[in-house]
Amino acid sequence: MAARDRDSLVSAAGEAEERALEAALRPKNLDDFVGQARVRQQLSLVLEASRIRERTADHVLLSGPPGLGKTTLAMIIAAEMNAPLRISSGPAIQHAGDLAAILSSLTEGEILFLDEIHRMSRPAEEMLYMAMEDFRVDIVVGKGPGATAIPLDLPPFTLVGATTRAGLLPGPLRDRFGFTGHLEFYSTGELELVLRRSAMLLDLKVNSAGFAEIASRSRGTPRIANRLLRRVRDWALVHKLEEIDLRAASAALDMYEVDARGLDRLDRSVLTALITKFNGGPVGLSTLAIAVGEETETVETVAEPYLVREGLLGRTPRGRVATAAAWEHLGMVPPAGAMFGETLFTLTEESAPELFED
Ligand SMILES: Nc1ncnc2c1ncn2[C@@H]1O[C@H](COP(=O)(O)OP(=O)(O)O)[C@@H](O)[C@H]1O
Ligand SMILES: [Mg+2]
């Protein structure tokens, strides 16, 4: 999509050309995986237990915004279990037959990674229920009244599902995962660790202030942190800098239009539309998406989670609203009586001193 191309620097979705680079920076085991302490602990317990029981591990569901490490964790699970990994994705499985073909070729103990599992077709989903629970599928042969279902036993395997939208998964599917890990945005400190590791692998010299600056503009997302690091590296190369410092990092990132709070063009255009076209809201998500020329799903999964976490955007029963902090971030003053969710915001000398100066 054109909008995605335009925003590829700051979008959290990995584009094809950077996959190879990403692969080089991907941590290979749980110990190298930075942050997400809770998920990491829980997962390592699940894996350890299955090793002790000498059984395949329970099915694992990983959820969270793009770029936080779902694919990385799936690969780590396979590595930790010393098991082969098969990768497919919801959109690639359009027919139950597509899934049957994958399932019937699995070997014992194999890890099946299904990315974007919420986008699988209904019939495939139903086949998956039985496969997950009973390690069995029914292959339907023939059509109409003469059709017969031939049961097929599967070797025990571990399904690792990933989704950016856990809320969209039907209950019966969610219930069949023995463990669900929800990945959270990373703290600036954690992103600094990600960056230090990447800089070492890329043989880059960056000082502490430089790391801190890149980390604080990375939207809590390792994929973005790594991408910004490469852009800053380019900038330093062209400017013949030996070491990346605060000034280099911030000059480079300003040039790429990543602002001090890490907001990219998509984030800013969502906030700007919300404020200038809808007077701060509330406005429905799909209307907002149309106003910025993006797909609803992009706004909902890519921009919104971070804006909400940053306290710039609120979700209310009547729609999305810009918070006072959003107006402030864009250098604007909320109109008197602006609605922030359900509360009436009144301007006082304290909340908006600039209005009371003469
Ligand atoms: N916890 C982490 N520690 C270090 N690097 C990470 C971590 N999580 C993600 N990354 C980096 O970010 C990139 C994107 O992660 P990925 O697993 O592809 O995200 P997702 O599948 O959730 O979109 C990876 O190439 C990896 O280098
Ligand atoms: Mg992924």
From TrEMBL:
Domain comment as written in the entry = Has 3 domains, the large (RuvB-L) and small ATPase (RuvB-S) domains and the C-terminal head (RuvB-H) domain. The head domain binds DNA, while the ATPase domains jointly bind ATP, ADP or are empty depending on the state of the subunit in the translocation cycle. During a single DNA translocation step the structure of each domain remains the same, but their relative positions change.
Know the name of this protein?
A: Holliday junction branch migration complex subunit RuvB
What EC number(s) does its UniProt record assign?
Answer: 3.6.4.-
- Catalytic EC class: hydrolase
> Which residues hold Mg(2+)?
71
Q: Where is this region: Small ATPAse domain (RuvB-S)?
A: 187-257
The region called Large ATPase domain (RuvB-L) is annotated at: 6-186
What organism is recorded for this protein?
A: Arthrobacter mobilis
Location, primary (coarse class): cytoplasm
The listed locations are: Cytoplasm
Annotated residues that bind DNA are located at 315, 320
Key word NAD present in the record?
no
Chain coiled-coil ranges = none
- One GO molecular-function entry: four-way junction helicase activity
User: Which domain of life does this protein belong to?
Assistant: Bacteria
Catalysed reaction, written as an equation? ATP + H2O = ADP + phosphate + H(+)
Subunit and interaction comment: Homohexamer. Forms an RuvA(8)-RuvB(12)-Holliday junction (HJ) complex. HJ DNA is sandwiched between 2 RuvA tetramers; dsDNA enters through RuvA and exits via RuvB. An RuvB hexamer assembles on each DNA strand where it exits the tetramer. Each RuvB hexamer is contacted by two RuvA subunits (via domain III) on 2 adjacent RuvB subunits; this complex drives branch migration. In the full resolvosome a probable DNA-RuvA(4)-RuvB(12)-RuvC(2) complex forms which resolves the HJ.
Protein family (similarity comment): Belongs to the RuvB family.
Cellular component per GO, a single term: Holliday junction resolvase complex
Q: Which residues form the AAA+ ATPase domain?
A: 56-190
Residues of the region (Head domain (RuvB-H)) are 260-358
What Pfam families does the entry give?
AAA_lid_4 (PF17864), RuvB_N (PF05496), WHD_RuvB (PF05491)
Looking up InterPro entries in the UniProt record yields:
AAA+_ATPase, AAA_lid_4, DNA_helicase_Holl-junc_RuvB, P-loop_NTPase, RuvB-like_N, RuvB_wg_C, WH-like_DNA-bd_sf, WH_DNA-bd_sf
